[in-house]
Design a protein that fits this description.
two-stranded antiparallel ribbon, mainly alpha, 2% strand, elongated, 286 residues
């Protein structure tokens, strides 16, 4: 659904008289502060990101390019005020790690769309990007907000956090594949996933659900790595056959465990009758 929005919104925005103002009004219910209450869906948050992304190419000067945005000074000032309001709201939310990823994504995209990135806020941007590094657009946004020079250090940080998969995406975005080869990172990611699964098995409190949790964790890791191998054409360096076999084994095991246990024939016969008991025969009067 969001992909459908991405394809239709830019064309719709072109027909607007003051499209930048329209976008700011459209996202105002969610950004800079979500006024919808606590128990709401994140879908509208992601829609805000798509709207801001769609605005970017529409407001670029067709002659000069990205260095000049077709936004009035008053609208740009309004965008800056909104960004400052969002930053102040971080104090109410607690630590940066507690901020929802849709909020982080909207904030960073807002900065890029309206060209209001501030060099003095680079430390904040870095924390936000690393905290939401799993999002596909984060490597590109990191570069767009001025973190290109810090990418090697950020990749090191992601690796130290056990986020090797995210690190791979960042390396490809900035051309650091030679410095951070992807295959060793992917293999390390799988090893860490297995270690984590083993720790679940060893925890006595998880005895009832341990096998299920281990299989699910390993499945997720295998699927993510296989997708990465396909996306970056790494089949020759990291043949996926064994990973696919292991994934099939886990899927087969899960399917077999879902099958109901066979019921013995004598029990099936007795259990199949749920009707009323026949009336007792009347005794003979003598």
């Amino acid at each position: 659904e969001l992909e459908n929005l991405r394809s239709k919104i830019p064309a719709a925005l072109v027909d607007c008289v003051d499209l930048a103002v329209l976008v700011l009004e459209a996202i105002s219910e969610v950004f800079p502060v979500d006024t919808r209450g606590d128990k709401v869906s994140n879908d509208y948050g992601w829609a805000c990101v798509v709207i801001l992304e769609s605005l970017t190419p529409v407001i670029v000067d067709p002659v000069i390019g990205k260095s000049r945005l077709l936004v009035t000074p008053s609208v740009k000032e309004k965008a800056k005020e909104i960004a400052e309001t969002w930053k102040k709201s971080l104090e109410e939310r607690g630590r940066i790690e507690n901020v929802k990823t849709p909020d982080v994504h909207t904030f960073l995209q807002h900065l890029v769309t309206f060209g209001i990135v501030k060099s003095e806020d680079l430390a904040l941007y870095r924390k936000l990007v690393v905290g939401s590094a799993w999002r596909k657009q984060m490597p590109k946004l990191a570069v767009s907000v001025g973190l290109g020079d810090q990418m090697p250090d950020m990749i090191e940080e992601l690796i130290s956090r056990g986020q090797q998969l995210d690190a791979v995406h960042f390396t490809y975005e900035v051309g650091l594949v030679d410095k951070f080869p992807p295959v060793p990172l992917l293999k390390a990611y799988l090893r860490d996933a297995k270690k984590s699964a083993a720790s679940i098995m060893e925890d006595s409190s998880n005895t009832g659900r341990a096998t299920h949790l281990v299989a699910r964790k390993e499945q997720s890791a295998l699927k993510a790595v296989l997708k990465c191998i396909e996306e970056y054409k790494l089949e020759e360096e990291f043949p996926p056959e064994n990973l696919k076999k292991r994934l099939d084994q886990l899927e087969k095991t899960k399917t077999e465990k879902r099958k109901p246990a066979a019921v013995p024939a004598n029990k099936r016969t007795r259990a199949s009758y749920n009707g009323p008991m026949p009336p007792a025969k009347a005794g003979r009067i003598t």
